[in-house]
Structure formats: C-alpha cells, structure tokens
Amino acid sequence: MYEGAIQDLIDALGRLPGIGPKSAQRIAFHILQSDSEIAANLVEAVRTVKERVKFCTQCGNVSEETECRICRDPRRDGTKICVVEESKDVIAIERTREFRGKYHVLGGAISPIDGIGPDQLRIRELMQRLADSTITEIILATDPNLEGEATATYLARLIKPMGINVSRLASGLPVGGDLEYADEVTLGRAFEGRTNL
Amino acid sequence: MYEGAIQDLIDALGRLPGIGPKSAQRIAFHILQSDSEIAANLVEAVRTVKERVKFCTQCGNVSEETECRICRDPRRDGTKICVVEESKDVIAIERTREFRGKYHVLGGAISPIDGIGPDQLRIRELMQRLADSTITEIILATDPNLEGEATATYLARLIKPMGINVSRLASGLPVGGDLEYADEVTLGRAFEGRTNL
Fold this sequence. Notes:
- Chains A, B: InterPro entries: DNA_Rcmb_RecR, Rcmb_RecR, Rcmb_RecR_Znf, TOPRIM_dom, TOPRIM_RecR.
- Chains A, B: May play a role in DNA repair. It seems to be involved in an RecBC-independent recombinational process of DNA repair. It may act with RecF and RecO.
- 2 copies of one chain form a homodimer.
- By secondary structure, the first copy, chain A, is an alpha/beta fold.
- The first copy, chain A, folds into 2 domains: 4-52, Helicase, Ruva Protein, domain 3; 75-168, Dna Topoisomerase Vi A Subunit, Chain: A, domain 2, CATH 3.40.1360.
- In chain A, 44% of the residues lie in helices and 13% in strands.
- Chain A is built from 8 helices and 6 strands, in the order H-H-H-E-E-H-E-H-E-H-E-H-E-H.
- In chain A, the strands form 2 sheets. Chain A has a 4-stranded parallel beta sheet. In chain A, strands 1-2 form a two-stranded antiparallel ribbon.
- In chain A, strand 3 (77-84), helix 5 and strand 4 form a beta-alpha-beta unit.
- In chain A, helix 1 (4-14) packs across helix 2 (21-33).
C-alpha cells in the first residue's frame, strides 16, 4: 500500500473496467511521473464527456446535440432502422459502409440473470418510432450470443405483426478465419445459412 | 470515430500505458454511462496526485511530505540502504518484511538504448548519502534483467572502494515454481548460488 493520494488514484483506476491492480499501479505512476499536460488532458476529457455527451433523443446513440449526427443527416435512409445493443456497435457497423439507414440503440440486451428485461431497454422508444409508418425494414444487429439472440427473438415477435420487414444479421464463419478452429455452433450456423453459388 | 468529446476521452485514455483502443473505448463508455461520482472521483484522484505527491528528497520514493514515511521512521535501520529502480519495488520489498533498513530509488536502470545513463538516475544523490559514514551496507535490488544487472555492476564498482559492504539479491528458482519450466539462465544461476544444507 502506498501513502494517501497515489493509493487513491490506484483505487480509482482499478474500479474502471478491464484495469487490474497491476495496470492501475502502472498508470498511476505514469500519470505521476509524466508532464502535467497528460493529467490535465485526462481530467479535462473526463469532465467534458460528463458535461457534454448526452444520448440522442431519437435513437439513443451518444451525441453532443439533442439528435445525433446520423439522425440529423437527411441523406440517411429513414425507412430502415438497424437495432443494436450499444453505441459501439453503431461505430462498428458504420465502418462497414454497408448500411445507409438509421439506428436504434437499445442500451443492452435482455438478460434475466442481470435483471435486465424489456423495460430496462429502449424498446418502448423503438415502438414509438415504428408507429410512424415510414419505417419499412428493421435489421436486428444484437450480439450473436444468448442475450442478443433472446433480444432479437423478442423484438421480431413484437415487430413482425406490424407488417414491417424484420431481418437478423447472418451468423457464420468469420472471414479470414480457419474452418477447423470454428466452434461447433458457429459452424452449424454456417451450414444452416449456406448460400447457393 | 465518435463525435467530439467521447473520442477525445478515448484518445486521452489510449495514451496511458497498457490501454489499447478497445479498452479505451470500453472505459470511456463506462465513465459516460455510470454515475457522475465515478468520473468525479477519478478527476479528483488525478488532480490530487499531481498536486500533492512529490518525491522524497532523501531516497526518491513517492511521498506527500518532504521526506517519505520510511525515511522519517526512526525505527528503521539507517546503516543499510536497499537500492531499487522504482517506487513500486519499495512496496514489493516492504511486503516481504525481510528488510528494516532504508531505501534509495534510482528512477530507472542504465539503458544506453533508451538514452539512460548514470546521470539520468539518482546516483549522485546516492553517493551524497554514502558520504555520511553511518551507512555500512548497500543491497542492490535492481531488476534481474540486462539493464538491472548493468546498473548493479556499475554501482558495485563505484561503492565497493568506499569500504561499504555491497550485496546483490539472489537469483534462482522462484519458490513454488517448477524446475523443468525454469529458463536456462535462471537454472544456471540457481546452481551457481546453491547453498549448503
């Protein structure tokens, strides 16, 4: 244990996700020993995020305005909504340049074990957006795991009866991967979803 | 890429040691989404460290006072100095409860490739402490790697002619380890340093 302030910083850093005691110590000493500028930048960045970054009132994505960049963009196709768990997923999909519609960020996935049911997610807000009949297609891009699949199934059941086209991202072998290292569930999905050539 | 503030925070976090782009993103969203208290704690801890934590004028260890807790402690044996590279090493040795003398923190090890020579380390300060004839034993506890060994050899050559007892921490098999997994250098050292039973 260190004296006072340095231990407090190690503790504060150690509470962040993915930072263990050794990394927290290493980062604390780095902050202590490097220019004041590095510490000042970090302090400023944390404060600005807490002050300025909000969530888009439309889609729930992070944004510094009432509506996010994508929701404000008139060139985006307003008839398609891609539903994701987190803002990070929006960035990942944007990088593919495959999708030019809009998004809806749920803020997580249904997970009874963590006490997260449909009411804890932004599903009511999604339903309100769907009430507007301009939306004709929903792409469910929740994670390909238990919680993500459950959430997709739940949403599909809710949305399909509204006459809206609902699809799910394909599961299969990762591109550049090695067939022999694929787990059996992924390989099974790849068979199921095989496409004709 | 995110908009403004959140990307700035990801960048600031990504500049810390051991935090890659994915962890930086994860931590930034954690800070954004959790209570303001977590962000406030972190901001406060970083600022306090930069404001309050200094280095002990005697030994170079981190301290909030002019002299650190160990240098101020009259029960510590002032005739022995254990020389280490970093403040973290002081904590590691204190945990063993084997040593009741004082410390000297060099602030690194001699590493020509990184442009660190004896002048960049707190070696002059160590020599000044040794001018006081109360010190009779120096234990060199630099890291058991190339730079640490070079530093220990350099210091031994400097200090031995002063008639001070100079020793180096033993190298050998780690306790609880497995002989067959020890690297050949470590195993060689364990042979060299074998003790009679």
